[in-house]
Amino acid sequence: MSTDSKAPVPKKRTVPAALRPLKYVGIPESVLAWKPRLPSRKWCMFWASLAGLGVVYYDDRRQCKKIMEEYKERVRGLSEQSMHPLEHPRKVLVYTAKYPGDDNYDVGVRFFKRYVKPILVAGAVDYEITSGTSYGNLARELRNRIHQRRRNLAGVEPWTTNTVAGTSLPTTLSPAQYLQRELEGAVVLIGRPALKEWAWALKEGWGTTIPVKPMDFSEKLATELSEDSAFEEITEAATTESDVSTSTQSHERDSEAALPAVPTVPGRGFSVPTQAGLQSMQRRPPFSPFAIPPSAAQSQSVVTEATSELGSKPEPELPPMSPIPAQPPICFVDFTNLVGFSNIPRRIARFFYRREEVRRGAEAGLSIVLGTKNDAREFQAGDRGTIPRDPPQGHDLDWGLEEEAYYPSTFFKTISNIEKWRKSYYEELRKELKASREIARGIREPTKAEKRNMPKSEIELRGQRFDKEEQWRNSEHGFKILDPAAGVEWDESWRGSLRVLVPRSPDEHVPRRTQEAKDSSGEEASVSS
Known about the structure:
Residues 236-268, 293-318, 444-465, 504-529 are annotated as: Disordered. The chain contains 16 helices and 8 strands. The protein is mainly α and 529 residues long.
């Protein structure tokens, strides 16, 4: 005879005596009899890990806030000092460049606003941020500013300080006052990319010969693009040969289908993409027996312009300046942007240890607020004639050199990617240009697909090509500046003109005003008013 074995029924837990009165207020007995117990082993490990990470995160952010408040308290006394109503506060220039491999060009700006700006605000120091949005953009912007400054110093361009030219306001600064205020400020470089682009701008801005009239680099590029054969009309045979061969070959023009083109002369053609398109797409005027033929009038104007250009005097130029004028003291902020899959472990570790970045940014802010051009040290570049062009260069030229070890691999493919994009674009451009010309001249009707999405006109294609070439060439130029294999630009004419803000001692601070001093100053202000 078999007996059914049943699992023992767990003993029902009784309600503790201390909780029994709660039964009569409507609380279920199952709630009062509930006995807490630990979760499973895996759940215990999960909650323990989560609690540990939470404690580490909370403690790090608490330390960050404490460090920032300590540094702000050391400079807050400056913001309590009184100023004249027409007096300008101290102002620093902040330069950030696009970090290699990162599509977000404002990471340096965010670092400055998060860790350096609070110290400047506490010390009542004004700032102006100049951020590069692409590779080399900061360098080109600073170069243009230096060129304008040279023309101001030479007297060929009027000074425009902080107001509209020709106006006079109580807060208007004279050129001497404007330069003095600039020297009393500082130049803040966020990261090694900003250092490289700033140094390149100094060398190209002060150390090259420039024309007296401002140079339009877009106009120069447009003239260069107008002299190549990208928009020339070629025969079918030449098209086939050019597709097979990679070398440059001369192509014959289709004289029957070609429109009258503007002859190319130095300094003319493709001055602006839209103008070039209008010149290439212009139609013949109506026939008139008294009118000069377009070809003859065009040739006559070209000859007249060429003769006037040959007979004109050479444009005056400004020679390089050596030594360069004194520059505001420099403050380099070490900033490493960890980009890429290989840097994910470092980013996780940095997330739980932000106090290091906070202290580094606060130290830089303290040096800016408390430092002046009088106690700044001279820029250390090494002995004359011993400075190499390739890193490591030594001394201050190696600021942030370790940052370049964390550049992602995508940055090193910049040149090859541009070459691939350029080749693909010009192959597609040839097809679009052919279709656009055939439709515009009535050689054929547009297809159904072309009716839904009409091909771009030659004017639009020229403008598109100009924009792409300008972007590609700027990126190539910026890569050459930021390449880790290239060092920081240096010129011996900079010696004595560059100074560096020194770190401040741990006990240096600005004493705050007492309440009695504040009350007395307020009474004096009321009496004087």
